[in-house]
Design a protein that fits this description.
Elements lengths: L2 H15 L3 H13 L6 H13 L3 H14 L3 H18 L23
Length: 113
């Protein structure tokens, strides 16, 4: 095994056994800090871990991080095609499928004057 394979195996094992949000986020920080885009298998395990820990937002953010990490849109679409069965099974969608962000501000009682 070379260093790359050992690195991927280490983080696959990490995401398979992660038990809390802190360790999930720590692992994500490590894999996305590297110069290369993480493997599809690594992204899949990270998404599974986020859903196992019931953090839907983190699962969506993982996809967003992949989108920013790859070099072009076709690479991101290849990730989505490969991950589609898993995403459908877990109910995870790309952030664009959630629709536009609409900021909602409540009027404050002290601002009525």
């Amino acid at each position: 095994k070379n260093d790359y394979d050992a690195y991927v195996a280490q983080w696959l094992q990490h995401f398979t056994s992660v038990e809390d949000d802190f360790e999930l986020e720590r692992g994500l920080n490590h894999i996305f800090a590297m110069d290369w885009a993480p493997t599809v298998e690594l992204v899949a395990e990270a998404i599974k871990a986020s859903r196992r820990l019931n953090t839907f937002a983190t699962a969506v953010r993982i996809l967003e991080a992949v989108e920013h990490k790859v070099h072009n849109k076709s690479q991101y679409e290849a990730y989505l095609r490969e991950l589609k069965p898993l995403l459908d099974e877990l109910g995870v969608v790309d952030k664009n499928a959630l629709g536009p962000l609409k900021a909602v501000r409540q009027k404050s009682w002290w601002a009525d004057a």
